[in-house]
Amino acid sequence: MRFPLLAAALMACAGLAASAGAFAQTQGAPIIIKFSHVVTPDTPKGQAALRFKALAEQMSNGRVKVEVYPNSQLYRDREELEALQLGAVQMLAPSLAKFSPLGVKEFEAFDLPYIFPSKQALYAVTEGRIGRGLLRKLEAKGITGLAYWDNGFKIMSANKPLLAPSDFRGLRMRIQSSRVLDEQMRVLGAQPLSLAFSETAPALREGVVQGTENTPSNMYTQRMHETQKHLTLSNHGYLGYAVIVNKKFWDGLPAGTRRILERAMAEATAYEKTIAQRTNDAALESIRRAGTTTIHTLSPQQQAEWRKAMAPVYARMEERIGKDVVGAIQREVARP
Ligand code: LMR
């Protein structure tokens, strides 16, 4: 679907959903939360969405029903944000790389190469003042941010070995819709192409792009390894999510229900953190066992070359992201 057809259809749904919600609340019918996402149910996000569903339904004694729609079943990346704002779905967990179409470019700080030296440093940002401040920026867009969910550090893949920065020259690489990721590929000499997640595995199969970056769990569950002959364990960037809800829907819930859902979200988030790394490690092992793909590790010297090659992204992008945000993250992650 395309605008304005999409908008018209969504607005019709939103109107229906809003009146259905009000009707449900007065009639004692369950409150429905449609939770749409683009990955498979066995990824970290997919599993956490199901855990949230189970917890929310159990803690609310069935007053809340969470319908999880995985795998871009309802909407692709860009469309799902529009659908959330219009109220056609109530909950999403888009990757932090996908918020700039909403006009909140600050989240692209999470895409800066090598910005997080460890998961601990990342959590210090997402669970602290900086993370909360970023979520608050969504309020003006009619969105409430509830939590950060984890996936992991990204690896690079292509149909040729990627060992030196010069190996990227001329390759068409799929990226998420982030200008920082676009710039990252350009400084490597590659041609970035922003594609929806659901379009990525087909584009790799058909040769529209020759490579990509993602976490092992996203690569394995989309069977990208079957067409990508080489993987490099570069861990050069981070992929995580913000769990978001339509603000009008959220504010309109009875206060008690909202508290229950906040507790369910806190538990699902804690669970998500325990499974993310494990799921990615298992996915990498499955790719290894599939035997389709050569897995490369970088020597310390090669790693230093990658860092050096990607360093110009900071100077080129900090104006766009906001120098204050980039600086605050850098100071936070440098703390002992
Ligand atoms: C991607 O588009 O590669 C990811 O954002 C997909 C996801 O939701 O993990």
Automatic annotation (TrEMBL):
The keyword Flavoprotein does not apply. InterPro entries: DctP_fam, TRAP_DctP, TRAP_DctP_sf. Coiled coil: none annotated. Gene3D superfamilies: Bacterial extracellular solute-binding protein, family 7. The keyword Cell inner membrane does not apply. Residues 1-24 form the signal peptide. It holds the Pfam family DctP. Keywords: Signal, Transport. Belongs to the bacterial solute-binding protein 7 family. This is TRAP transporter substrate-binding protein. It comes from Massilia phyllostachyos.
